Fold each of these.
Amino acid sequence: MGTVFIVHFWLFSTLAIGSALAMVTRRNPVAAALWLVNVMFALAALYVMLGAQFLGATQVLVYAGAVMVVFVFVVMLLNLGVGDDSERGSRVAALTASAISAGLAAELLFVVRSHPLPATLQPVAPDALAPIADSLFRENLVAFEVTSVLLLVAVVGAVVLAKRGRVADEARS
Amino acid sequence: MIREALVVSAILFSIGVLGVLTRRNALILFMCVELMLNAVNLSFIALSRLHGVTGQVFVLFVMTVAAAEAAVGLAIVISVFRHYRTLDLSRIRLLRG
C-alpha cells in the first residue's frame, strides 16, 4: 500500500464527501445534480482503487452517464427554478434531522470501528471480469433473469404513468 | 483500506439521510436516495475484497434496481408536477391528517 495510493484514496474520499455535502445544501436542482455527478465520478475512482475496474466503468456509464442525464432532463422538462423550491423548514425540524443523521453516522462508525475484519485481502484476478461473469451467470442466473422482468415492468410503468398524466390534462382542457 | 472505505460509505449514507430528512424538493430527495444507494455500493465493493466477488455482482443488481427506481420515480414526479404545479413536498399534503 504505497503512499501514492493512500494519498489518492483520501483525495477521492474527500472529493466524494465534500461533493455530497454540496449536493445536499444546493437550492438549485441542476447544481445539486451536477454535484451528484461529481460524487459518482469520485466513487468510480474509489471502485477502481478497490479492485473493481468493471464496476468503476459501469458506474460512470450508468450513473453519471444515464441516470443523472435523466434527472437533469426532468429538471429541464419541468422548467424548475430556484423559486419553486421554498425550503422554509422550521429550525427545529432541521436541527432534529441533523441530530438524527449525526447519530446514525456515529452508530455506523462505531460498528465499523468495533467489528474485526480479516487481515488478508482476496487477490484481484488479472482478468477481473471472468469471476464476475461466472458468479452472475451461474450462481445468480435466476436473479439475473428476474432483473430483466423488473426492467420491463419499470419501462411499462414509466410509460403508463407519464401517459396517464397527459390524458388527464387533455380531458381537463 | 477496507475499513477506511467503510467509513467513507457510512459518512456518505448519513449525508444522504440528512438530505432526505431536510430537503423539500422531490427531485433532490430522489438524488439523496441515489446517494444512499451509492454509499451502500461502496460498502459492497470494499467487502468484496474480503469475501469474494459476489459483492460486485450485488452492486450490479443494485445499479439495475436504482435505474428502474429512477425511471418510475421520475415518471411519478412528472405526474405530480402536472397535477400540483409544484414539487415542494410540504405543499403536497393530500394524505396528511
Amino acid sequence: MSRYYYYLLILNMLANITVFTPKLLLEKRTNGMIGSLIIAVILGITFLWIITKIFIKFPGRGLPELLESYTPKWFAKLYLLGAGLTWYVAGITTLIGYSFLSKRYLNPDMSLTMIVSIFLVVITFGILMKSQKVLYALEFALALCAPIIIVIIIKASFSDSMNWEIARMPFTYYRNLPSYETISVAMFSVLGYINISIFNREWKKPQKLKIGPIAGIGLLAFINLLTTTLIPIGFNGIDGVGDIVYPWIFTSDSIRMEFFFLERVFIMFLLLYLVISLISMVIHWHVGFQFLMGFSTFPFIKWKKHQLGKYVYIAFFWIASIQIVNRIPEFQAISFIKLYLSLIIPYITFMVLLLFFIVRKVKKNEA
Amino acid sequence: MRQNFLGLADKILEQFSQADDLIHHDIKYNGETVTLYFLKSIANEDSITRLFIKPFFEVGNLNEYCSYIRSLTIFKEFKDEDEVLQALSIGHLLVKVHYQYFLFDTKNVKNNVILETAVETTVHGPHTAFSEDFETNLNMIRHRYHEPKLAIEIDKIGKRNDVNMVLIYDPTYVNPNTLDAIKTDLKNLDKSLIISVGQLQKYMNKKSKALLPTTLLTERPDRTIFAIEKGKVVVMIDGSPFVLIAPAIFYDFMSAMDDIYQFFWATMFIRLLRYGGLFLTLLLPGLYVAVTSYNTEVFRVQLALSIASSRVGVPYPSFIEVLFMLLMMEFLIEASLRLPKTISSTATMVGGLILGQAATEAVLISNIMIIIVAAVAIANFVIPINEMSVAIRVLKYVLLFTASIGGLMGLTLGFVMILFYFIQVDSYGEPYLKVMYEKKEKSVKGESA
C-alpha cells in the first residue's frame, strides 16, 4: 500500500490518546478491559483487511464513484448523505473534546464560540484542499509530532512516578467478560483505514496489501491501546484514574523535563495533540465533505460563474459546530460520544455488506 | 538581398530621422558605390571596418564582393522592411549594393562583463555570476555543461521591446508536461515591456495575489547547471543578470550552493541551522506575545519572572511592544537597503544601537524584547534565497496576529495554517512542500502519491 495509507492508520492511533477515549476505556479497567482491547484489535484488523482488499480492486475510485455505478441512485444519495453526516460527527467529537480542553488549560478567558471559530478557520482551509494535499499535510503533521510524542511516551514509561506494579493490575481481571462498549471505543484506534473510501481516489496505481505490515499495524495498535490505558493507571493508581476526565493530560503534567527549556511536558503535549487532533478533524471532515459533495453539489447556487455549492456545507459545518459545542455540557458530550462510538461496529458491518454487494454486482456484470 | 525593396533606403532615413547616431556611409572605389547603414551607438564599428570596408578596396569587383559578404557567418536573411528597421535598431548593419540589400549582425554588446556574485555568495563555489548579456551567459552555461542534447530555444518576448528570451533545458531529464506548461505560460504572457526576469517570476505565478515564489531567481551559473541536471527549465532574458528556474519547490529556497561543496555532516549542520533560523524568525514574536500575555505558565518560573520583571513599567500590552519594535526593524532594513552605502552605515548605527538603547531606557519596551527583535532579524537572514526570506518576513506578522488573538493555541493553529498554505501551492505540477519527494524517475513520469 501507499505510505499514506499507513499514515491514516497511525493518525487514528495517535489521535485516540486525546480527549475522551482513554476515559471511556478506563471506565472498564477492572471489568475485562484487556480482553476487550484484544477483541477490538482482532476485529478491527479483520474489517481493515476486508474493506481495504475490496477497495484496491478499484484503483482510483472512491466510495461515491462505486455507489454511483453499482447501486440505485436514491440509495447512493441517501447513503452518501448519511456517511457525510457520520464523518462530520466523527470530526465534531474531536472538536468538542479539544475545545473543552483548550478552554480549561490553554485559554480559560476565551469564550467557547471564539475557540471553536479559531479552530474552524484552520479546518475550513484544510478541508477545501485537494485530497492529495490533505495527505501531504497529514504526513507533515506526523513527521513534526510523532517523534516528540514517542519520546514523551518513552519518558513516561521510564518515569519514577510510573508504577508498573499497578499498571499490571488490569491483567488480573482477565476472567471478566469483555464489554461491547469498550470494544467499540477501542476499535476507533484501528479505524483509520475507513478513510480509504475517499482517499482511494488518489491511489491510481494498483496497490498490494501484504500480511506482514498489517500484522505489524495490529501489534502497534495493541501496544498503543495498552499505553493509552496502562500508563495513566501506573501514574494515577487504579482507583484514582477513574475520577479523572483527561487521564493523559494529568499524566503528562506529572512528567518534568528538568534540563529542557520547557519544564512541563504537559504544555508540549497539549500543543502536539492540538496539531494531531486538528489534522484528524481535517481528515474526517474532508472525507465527510467529499461524501456530501457526492450527495449533491448544489449546481444551481452560483455567483458570477463561481460555484458556491460547497460553501453551503461549510456554512453548515460552522453553524452546527458552534451550536453543538455551546449547547452540550461536557458530561453529556461524553455519553454522546460513547453512543456514537458504539455505532461503529454496526456501521462498518453494513459497509462491508454493501461492498460485498458491489463486488457481486461487478462479477455479475463481467459474467 | 531581394531587389524589390526600392524605397528601403528612403524609409530608413525617414524612420531614423531623429536618430543622430545613424550612419549612412557611401564607400566608392573604381566607380563602384556601396552604402552602409548602421547605428553608431550599438553596432561594432571595428568589425564593420575590418569585414566590410577594407575588403571592398581589396576585392575591387562588386560581384566578388557580394559573394564575399554573403559568405560571412553574421549574414542574415530578412523578409520585409519592418524586419530591417527592427534589426537596425538592435545593432545590425545594412549594406546596399546597387539595388540589393544585405543584412548583418554586427551588434556591439557593452554589458557582457562577467560580474562577481553579489546576492548569493558562497565560500567554495565559483565566484562569478551571470553577465547582463545573454550570449555571454549561454557561453558560461555551455562551458560548464557539456551535453550535446542540451536544448537552447531562443525566442522573443515583450510586445514593444521584443527582447531575446532563451529557454534552456536538458531533454533527457525534463518533464514534458512541465515544459509545456511553462511554454504556454510564456506564450500567453500579454505584456508590452519585459525588462527583467523578476517581472517574469511575478507574471508566471498563477495567482494574481501570491506571496510564495514558485520560481527561483539565481545569478549563479553553478546553481543553473545543477537545476538543468535536475530536469528543470531555465528562462533567461537578455539584459538581466538573473535567470529564472522553474519549477521550484520550498526546499530549493532553503538550500545554498555551499551545501553541495561541503562534507555531509557539515551540510547537515548548516541545514539544521537554517531550519532553526526559519522557525525562530517565524515563531519568536508570536511566542513572546503568547507567553507574556496568555500562557505565562509555559516556561520555568525563573524565566517567567525575569520576563515579567523586565516588562515592569512598560505601558503597552505585549503585542504592541512587539509590533513597534518589529516595524522599527523593518524600517531599518528597508532604509539600509536603498540608501547610498556611505549613509547606510550611519542609519543602522542610529537605528540599531541608539534607538534600541533609548527605547529600553524610556521603558517603552523591555530588554528581552530587544534580544528577540535582534534574533528575529538575524535568523531571517539565514534563509539563503531572498524571495523566501521576504515571504517569511511577512508571514511572521500573521503568526503574531494569531498569537495575539489566541495565545499559544492561536500560535500553533496559525502555524498549521501556514503549513497548509505552503502545502496547497503547486509549482508547475510539482507539489511545493512535501515531507518526502519520490525519486526523480517517478516524478518525471508524472506518477505520485
Amino acid sequence: MPVGVSREVEDLRLVNLTKQFGDSTAVDGISITIPAGSFFALLGASGCGKTTTLRMVAGLEDPSAGQIFIGEKDITQLRAFQRPVNTVFQSYALFPHLDIYENVAFGLRRRGIKDVDLQVKRMLDLVELSALDRRKPSQLSGGQQQRVAVARALINQPDVLLLDEPLGALDLKLRRQMQIELKRIQSEVGTTFVHVTHDQEEAMTMADTVAVMNAGRIEQLGHPADVYETPHTIFVANFLGQSNLIAGEKLSSGEVVEVGAHGLGFKIPAKRNVAPGSHVVVGVRPEKMTVLDAHDEHKLPIGHNRIFGVVTDVSYTGVSTQYLVQTPWDQTIIAFEQNSIVGDRSSVGDQVVLGWAPEHTFGLDPAEGVTSGIHEGVSALESDPEA
Amino acid sequence: MPAIANTPNIAEVSQRKSRVAYWLLIPGLAWLAFFFVVPLVTLFMTSLQTESTTSPGKYVPGFQLSNYTDAISEYWPQFLRSFLYAGLATGFALLIAYPLAYFIAFKAGNWRSLMLVLVVAPSFASFLLRTYAWKTILADDGAVTSTLNSMHLLPDGRILNTGIAVVAGLTYNFLPFMVLPLYAALDKVDYRLIEAGNDLYGSPQQVFRKVTWPLSMPGVVAGTLLTFIPAAGDFINAELLGSTKDKMIGNVIQTNFIEFRDYPTASALSFALMAVILVMVLSYIRRSGTEDLV
C-alpha cells in the first residue's frame, strides 16, 4: 500500500505489563490503551522504565508478567521479527555496511518482497533523502541519519512505530525541525506513534496524549494541556514544568475547598483537588501568578489566592521575567510574568503580593513528599532553555 | 631587542616536530633492514646460486633460475598439500572459533576476561610440547582412536601419522590466532544493530547473514590470514603427527637446509612459498573487499 494513504491500524494495549531485573522492578504493572493513530508520548526521567516498556512492545525484552495486545491479537509471545511493530532507535542503529537505500529496504527484503524499488523511493521522498540513497550512514549528518531511521522503520507500515528518544542526539534547532517533521509524517501515514522522551517540551508539543512515568508506573496520562494544568501528583507537578507547592490543612469542603497554610487561606475548586484527606498540598504554576507591589493588593480581583513576600531575585529572560519571592515562612516561590506589562517591574527587596485565580490552583496528596520529581525535573529543564 | 625576534616561527617549530617523528622511525627501520631486508636479499641470492664446478657440494653465486623450476617440479605435491592442509585447518579453525568468539563477545558477560585468558592459556606451553601432547592424544592405543575405531569411523584404523592428525594439529595450534581477531571484530559489533535487524523482520539466521557476518568480516579476514599463513609454512605438525606421505613444504625446506645442505633449492622453495602466499593473500583481500577494514 502506498505511503500516505491512511489504513486500518489497531489500538496498542498493555495489560499489567511488568518487568523485573533481578530484585529491581523497572516496569511495575502498566495497563494502558494507546488508541490507533495517536501520537503517544511516554515521558519520564532516565531510569523510570519508559525505554524498558518500549523494548517490551518491540519484543526486544521479555516481560516478567502481563500482556501486550495489538487490536485483539496477543503479541506477548511473538519474537521481535514477528511483530507488526518497528522501532526508531535512540542511536538510530543504522547498518554501517549498507547504503541508505539498502538500510531502508532492509525490512521489506527480510520479508521476501522482491520489488522494493518503488516503495524505497517513495519513502526516501517522504523524508527528503532521495539524493543521498547511495551514501553510507557515516557520510550523513545526525539529522539525516535520524530521517533514515524513521524511513527504515516506516516503510514496513507497522501498526505501531516506536521512537526511543529519537531526537536526543540532535542540537536544539534541528530537534525543533524534526519535531515538526515527525508530526507531519505521522499525520501523513496515520500510524500509531509511541514516543519515549525525557524532554517534557518535546512530549507536550508533539503528542496528543502524554503519559508521565515514574519508578515503573504511570503517574498521569492525558492530553498534554490537561496534565500540565491539572497535575494529579506532586511528581507530575514538579517534573512537568515547575510548580509552587505549599503544604496545608483543609479548612472547609464544598464546591470550593479552602486550605489553610501559614495563616493564609487558599481556595481550590473541589474538582481540582485530588487530596483524599485533610492534608492538602496547594499548587500553582509560576506563570499563573500576578506580581504586584504590596500596596497594590487591592488591584487583585476579590477571591483570588494571594501570598505576600519579598523579592530576592529578578531574572529577565526575554519573553518573561522570573521572580523569586521569599515568604514569611522562608519558602521561595517562583513566579513568571510576561514582559508585556507597561511600567516598572518589581526589583530585589520589594515587598510584593503574588495573586492567582482559584481556577489555576490544584490540590495534591502530600503523601509522596513535596520534593518528589524536582530533581528529575531539573535535568529535563536544563536540556531546554525555553522551558 | 623585541622579544618576538627570539621566538622561533611556527614553520620552524613544526618542521622540527616532524623531524623528531622521523627520528622515532629509525630503530624500527634499522631492525627491519638488518633482520628482514638483508636476510631476504641473502635468501634470494642463495636461491640463485650454482654448484661449484671445482668443489662439488659447495655453492657459488650465480643466476641459476632452474633452481626454481627444478624445486617446484620436484616438490609440487608438498606445495599443494601445504595449501590443502593449511586451508582445511583454517576452515576448521573458523568453524570452531566463530561460535566461541561470538559467545565471548555477546553472551559471556563477566566470564569474558576469563574465557579470553583460557583461549590464550595453551600458548604458555611451548608449541613443540603441545604438538607432542597431540601425539599422545591421537596415539593408536589412545582413547580417541579406539573410540572412533569402535564406531568404524576411521578408514585407516588410525589417526596418528595420517593427514587427519596433521590438520588437527594445525587447527589446534593456530586456533587462538583465529579466535582473537574474531573476538575483536565481534566485540566492536554494536548489539543494537542486531536488535535493529530483529526489529526489521530479520529472523536470527537472516540477521546473522545480513548484519553480524558482514560486520565481523574484518575479523574473519584477519583470523584466516593469521591462521593460513603460518600453517602453510609450518613443519612441526607434519613432522610429529604425520607420516612421510604427509610432508608439507616446510618439511621439505627444513630437510633441504639442514640435512641435504642444498641451500639453493631450500631458498628457492622458501621464496616460491612466500611469493605464492603473497599472491593468494592479496587476491583474497581484494575479493573480500576489506582493504580498508583490515
